[in-house]
Amino acid sequence: MINIYVDADGCPVKNEVFRVAQRYGLKVYVVADTGMRIPEHELFELIIVNDRFDAADDWIVEHLKENDIAVSADIPLAARCIAKGARTLDPRGRVFNNESVSHALAARDFMAHLRDMGNVTAGPPPFEKRDRSRFLRNLDEVILAALKTEGQAVRNNR
Question: What tens digit of pLDDT does each residue of 81-116 get?
């Protein structure tokens, strides 16, 4: 069974995840360091971790397995999830793989270096309707690919 893990603090697409996961019958773990309201449904579970730095990230990485899906804007978390064989995308719909997450980590480190040197860098652009649409489209594609792989694994084990 494929699960979806949402790095929930500040995630603007939780409702979209719930809607799509319910359509496919997938369990969603919403991981946060503070309480929040999620729809009451047997497929949705809120996990509240302590407020230790990276506690939500650590919980997600500890519990996800190969072929699960992680939703996070946190690039280092995305890299950790990919290393465990999970499929990972950010709330804007960018799907990560080994290569793209390496590039994203390098860009993140470069921007941090510029800020440390006193250069002012712009933050991310505002979240827009087209970001939400791209996320929905790519989440659907990632789920279908995971289900296909999961189905092949089940057939191979018979």
Answer: 999 999 999 999 999 887 776 666 566 566 666 667
In Å, how far are 2, 9, 36, 115 from 57, measured between CA atoms?
19, 11, 17, 24
Which are the contacts of 72, defined by CB distance < 8 A and separation ≥ 6?
6, 7, 11, 57, 60, 78, 81, 88, 90, 91
Name the token pair of 38. Answer: 């999620």
Cα–Cα dist 69/42, whole Å: 18
Answer whether 46's CB lies under 8 Å from 109's CB: no
CB neighbours of residue 59 within 10 Å: 20
What are the residue ranges spanned by the domains of the chain? 3-156
pTM, rounded to two decimals: 0.84
CATH number of 3-156: 3.40.50
* The pLDDT of residue 126 is above 90: no
Tell me the C-alpha distance between 153 and 158, whole Å: 9
